[in-house]
Structure formats: C-alpha cells, structure tokens
Amino acid sequence: MRLISRLSWLFVGGLFIFSGLIKINDPVGTAIKLEEYFDVFAADFSSFFLIFKPYALFLSIFLSALEIILGVALLLRWRLRQILRGLLVLIIFFTFLTFYSAYFNKVTDCGCFGDAIKLTPWQSFSKDILLLLLIVVLLATRRYLPETKTARVAGVLVALTAILSFGIGIYAYNHEPFIDFRAYKVGNNIPALMKPSSPLRYKYIMARNGQEKEFTQYPTDSTWKFKQMVAINPEDGPKITDFNVWNDQGDFTQEVFSGNKLLILVQDVSKVNPKKFADINNLIVAAEKSSKNIKPVVVTASSTQDFDVFRHEANLSAPYYFGDATVLKTMMRANPGIMLLKNGQVVGKWHYNDTPGIQTVERQL
C-alpha cells in the first residue's frame, strides 16, 4: 500500500503541474474555453453564468496557477491534509465539467491540456475519474506520506511557485504563448496544412433488422441501410479546415498565400484602442517601402461598418479583408497581432506589445 500511495503522490502532483503549465502558457486560449463553458451553462441552466464571462481571463490564470501551486505543494508534502482536500474539490469540479461535456456532447474539447494534447470528452472524463480515485487513495493512505519536516522552506517554495505561476500567466497574456502548439505556429505552412497528409479512408455503419454492421466498402446489398460514415484515419486529415479571407469582391485566400505578406490581425475593433496602432502603422509604412516586396494586409472579423469607422480612427491605410473570428483567435492570441507569411509559410508572429521594426521583419524573409 505504501508503494501505491507513493506512486499516486508522484503521478497526481506531476500531472497537476503539467496540466497547469500547459494552460498558463496560453491563458487567452484557456479563457476562450471557459467562455465556451459559460455560454453552454447559460443556455442549459441559467443566464447567471454569463456574469463570469468578463472574468474568464482572470479565472484562466487563477485556475491554471492553482493547479501548479497545488501540484508543487503536494510533491513537497506541505500542509498535506489541506492540499489534498483542495485537490479533491478541484478535481470534482473538473470531473463535473468533463462529464457534462461528454454526456451531452456540449464542449467537444475540454482544453485540459490546451492545444498541446487533444482529448475527446470521454477521454477527459476518464482522466479525471482516474485522478479522483488517486486523490481518494492519497487521502485514505496519508499516513504513508509524512508531512515535510522543513515546513518553512516548503512554504517559501510554494509561495515562490505562486508568484512565478501568476507571473508566467500575466506575461503570456501580454505577449504570445511561450510555446505555440497551434497549427499557425512559426514554421508551419498554412496551405500545406489545409490538405490531408494522406487520402482519407472511411468505414460505413449500416443497419439491417435492428442490427448494425461496419463495412470498409459501401455494401452493394440494398437491404443494408446507411446510418453513418466515419473516417478511419482522421489524424491524416487537414490540420487547418476553416482558413479563408474575403471581401465584397470575392475570396482572396490564395492571394494571401502569394509572396511576402504582413498580416495585421484585428479580431474585434470594439476591444482595441486605436492608439495601439502607432507602431503598427509605422511598420506598415516601412514594409511598403521595403526592398523585400512586403505587402501589408489587414484581416478583421468585425463588420464592414465598424471597421470602416475604426480604420479612420487608427489611420490604417493597408488594404483589408475579412476572416472568421474563431480562426483569427486561433492564429493570434493578441488583438491586434502581426503575422508574417512567406508564400503561405508562417515566418514570424508578434503581439502588438512586441511590434517589430522593419529590420527584424526583413531578417525573417
């Protein structure tokens, strides 16, 4: 039993730290996932949950940091009883979320490990059930995990962990994530990722006389009735399926993939201070004069009317197109943000707080 207790202690502590670090690396992405939960609960239970949406970013950083802090405290065996109770409350909360997502198919990705590891709702629920059982084991076998004899030192380390965790979250919010796990990370070729890596193969689920059967080829026997077609190798499908840009004149997606393009991504003009565009406007002017033949392009998810008003306030002179709001949030966590493409390949990404000079941009090409 002592071995089981020790293994559970290491696994639970390590997994909470890992999960928290992955999420606090991208607090905006975690906040987006929380907003999705709030919308679902508001629709299914009460509009009361919409009260939390403005605080999604704060809750994102707080909950992610809390996972790290509790994980470190557990491994240090500092105030073990209180820490285990805190972990129990947290995992019960997470288990409810993942069960609700899985059973009612409401949120197809819980965001447990951000964009680093994608889990299906039932996989997420199974993971939380395992953690719940292990925490119960730890509570029942706490006598095999004596508290640290250097409580003061452990307390200082936990405090430093808290400061560092919140610091990482705040820094990642004001810049881009430290590690980019998204399909639009630097080095990726967007048009290549819009194609399957190999031909997709499917199986056909058919029904006859109340029984179901799977076929790898569509049956010629007409007594079988079609129910569903499921991809056998979905991992080989396109990693990017919803990227495109357009304006009133048509689709300009392929134009964006041609040559050197400096994309200024503006998700929502209502949440942007026009004064933040001073450095971006200087970069646009310098790019237009560059010998590298860089073409600045603005992509926004705002309406035509709203963006027309905004671009005059911000003195944005570059041509602009429209894109899907969710896609723009995936491409860039900053609003606004800057992405440099070379024939469709991402060669640079910058938060508006890190707007580069033209020399930095040219070096990337």
Automatic annotation (TrEMBL):
It is found in: Membrane. It is a multi-pass membrane protein. Residues 7-140 form the Methylamine utilisation protein MauE domain. GO terms for biological process: methylamine metabolic process. GO terms for cellular component: membrane. Keywords: Membrane, Transmembrane, Transmembrane helix. Its main location: membrane. The chain crosses the membrane at residues 7-24, 55-76, 83-104, 124-141, 153-173. Pfam families: MauE (PF07291). NCBIfam families: BT_3928_fam. This is DoxX family protein. It comes from Adhaeribacter arboris.
